[in-house]
Design a protein that fits this description.
Blueprint (H helix, E strand, L loop, with lengths): L2 E9 L6 H9 L6 E7 L6 H11 L6 E5 L6 H11 L2 E6 L5 E2 L3 H11 L4 E10 L8 E3 L4 E3 L4 H5 L13 E4 H7 L10 H9 L6 E13 L7
Parallel strand pairs: 1-2, 1-4, 2-3, 6-10
Antiparallel strand pairs: 4-9, 5-10, 6-7, 6-9, 8-10
Length: 223
């Protein structure tokens, strides 16, 4: 199967929220997507839940589950996604977050319109259903960087881009050609990756449209 886009999701003990996440990605209006799941030796029912979805959902044939030989962490899982993705473009997601139905179509159209290596969407930080904290939106300006200016924008005072690797669509051939991989770390590995990545980018587009919902939980590693 020749896919235009791969959505890559590292998976580890996510049975409490993986079904909702998978419903989100499988509802994409864009049709030609590979859903690549890297199981990092989960000990709960996460994998079985995805296998059930794979058997029952109309897009189940586009779900691919790969298993790590040992629990190696999110960096190793994302590096394997880079190696194994079959799409022309790659989009990382976390196993407990959500995306809007038009996310992939919107980012794909934008990256193609500007012949860019990467397209960034804006996001909303939302707390889980048991937390009364208000949601917060983080919007980029609608802006194209067509002459290598993204690095300067990203490294300006207080930073210009998100730390996470979710919610941007990137040309997978470009990413493989520069040889960038995630460092082996327990946290902020995505910030290191992203801030290295922008130094290689020549053409990029930022979008004010909310395309990603970053779901926060009090006891998660990132919190």
């Amino acid at each position: 199967m020749n896919y235009e886009v791969t959505i890559g999701i590292p998976l580890y003990n996510a049975e409490s929220f993986i079904r909702r996440t998978m419903e989100s990605v499988l509802s994409q209006t864009f049709e030609c997507i590979e859903f690549l799941i890297i199981d990092d030796c989960s000990k709960d029912n996460s994998v079985k839940m995805i296998q059930d979805i794979k058997q029952q959902h109309p897009r189940g044939g586009d779900i691919r589950i790969l298993h790590q030989s040992a629990n190696m962490g999110v960096s190793a899982a994302r590096n394997r996604i880079i190696d194994e993705a079959q799409g022309k473009y790659l989009y990382f997601m976390d196993s407990d977050d959500l995306i809007a139905p038009h996310t992939i179509a919107f980012l794909y159209d934008s990256i193609r319109k500007y012949n860019a290596e990467i397209a960034f969407g804006s996001y909303e930080k939302k707390w889980d259903d048991n937390n009364p904290k208000p949601n917060e939106q983080y919007r980029y300006p609608d802006k194209a960087f067509l002459n290598g200016e993204l690095g300067s924008f990203a490294f300006r005072k207080y930073g210009g881009i998100q730390a996470g690797v979710w919610n941007y669509l990137i040309d997978i051939s470009f990413l493989r050609n520069i040889g960038l991989k995630f460092i082996d770390a327990h946290y902020w590995e995505d910030m290191v990756f992203t801030y290295q990545l922008v130094t290689f980018i020549d053409r990029a587009v930022m979008l004010s449209e909310i395309t990603y919902y970053y779901v926060c939980r009090e006891n998660s590693l990132s919190q």
